[in-house]
Design a protein that fits this description.
TsaD; Nucleotidyltransferase, domain 5; 2 domains; five-stranded mixed beta sheet
């Protein structure tokens, strides 16, 4: 089965074509970072309008790069949520219109299920069951995964997601949007342990996360410098924040692996590209005899390939029909492919 994937949940316009036999044939992504940079964050109306401008040309481009005619497409998958409602509607409307025009089935895909399955775009790929750490700008989740659509939520952030905290700390340090990658780059030159920030919720049982207090601790530390934030001091603050966030994520994964007995950890979402996090998770997993799997950094952020892959599994199982877009959509409410059809 050959599937066209469409991703428009936030500020990335992305398309891809995935073939169940040949794998990923092509993927194209347009980022809106420059559009939103003057505002210091995503402006939903601007995001929706840019999706409208860019999506159809990107679909033409990905069809060309995959050397695939519309008649060779067997199905269409689009992100139905969670995300920004206007942005989601752009992708959903065009996907359903193409499905009618081409007489092909389409299916709405859960954005975080797409992220979860992104490591299966790589080789070697993990095998179910796995533990999944989904860590992005909008979500921080620990999920026990028995198979596609068989998810048990073990823990989540009770306030800011990890990626959101990275972006907010970057903003208070005066770094450009998007802040997370800029903060990680700055932290590379920071002095280890000059700032020892709290590790939220490591002093209590459970697998939930909290990053709001950590963000506030950085804010207070910056104020204590009388706002004399030279480059060296900003780097030290960034390093201290990143070390704290990474330790929390790593320790919660350790606890989850021990609790579940699982020995494969998949990590996806934008923060999954963070090099310090990847190194910490590898160090954590080795004594437990666990393996860690990631998608390539390009597929950690929002992309069409993960949506095409997730959609392919569901379309092959007979699922089809337009799904309503949803700004909120718990991942553990999903069902295995084919459990519900039409």
């Amino acid at each position: 089965m050959r599937v066209l994937g469409i991703e428009t949940s936030c500020d990335e316009t992305a398309t891809a074509i995935y073939d169940s036999t040949s794998g990923l044939l092509a993927h194209v992504l347009h980022t809106q970072a420059a559009l939103h940079a003057p505002h210091g964050g995503v402006v939903p109306e601007l995001a929706s309008r840019d999706h409208i401008r860019k999506l159809l040309p990107l679909i033409r481009q990905v069809l060309s790069e995959a050397d695939t005619a519309p008649t060779a497409i067997d199905g269409i998958a689009y992100t139905a949520g969670p995300g920004l409602v206007g942005a989601l509607l752009v992708g959903a409307t065009l996907a359903q219109s193409l499905a009618l025009a081409w007489d092909r089935p389409c299916v709405g895909v859960h954005h975080m299920e797409g992220h979860l399955l992104a490591p299966w775009l790589e080789s070697p790929a993990p095998n179910f069951p796995v533990l999944a750490l989904l860590v992005s700008g909008g979500h921080t989740l620990l999920v026990a995964v028995e198979g596609i659509g068989r998810y048990q939520l073990l823990g989540e952030s009770i306030d800011d997601a990890a990626g959101e905290a990275f972006d907010k700390v970057a903003k208070l340090l005066g770094l450009p949007y998007p802040g997370g990658p800029a903060l990680a780059a700055l932290a590379e030159s920071g002095t280890p342990d000059r700032f020892r920030f709290p590790r939220p919720m490591l002093d209590r049982p459970g697998l939930d996360f909290s990053f709001s207090g950590l963000k506030t601790a950085v804010l207070y530390a910056a104020r204590d410098t009388n706002n004399n934030l030279n480059e060296s001091l900003r780097a030290d603050l960034a390093r201290g924040f990143e070390e704290a966030a990474v330790e929390v994520l790593s320790e919660k994964c350790r606890r989850a692996l021990r609790q579940t007995g699982l020995r494969q950890l998949v990590v996806a979402g934008g923060v999954g590209a963070n090099r310090r996090l990847r190194a910490a998770l590898q160090t954590m997993a080795a004594p437990l005899g666990a393996e860690v799997f990631y998608p390539r950094p390009l597929f950690c952020t929002d992309n069409g390939a993960m949506i095409a892959l997730a959609g392919c599994h569901r379309l092959r199982a007979g699922e089809h029909g337009p799904a309503p877009v949803r700004t909120r959509w718990p991942i553990d409410s999903l069902h295995p492919p084919g459990a519900q059809t039409g």
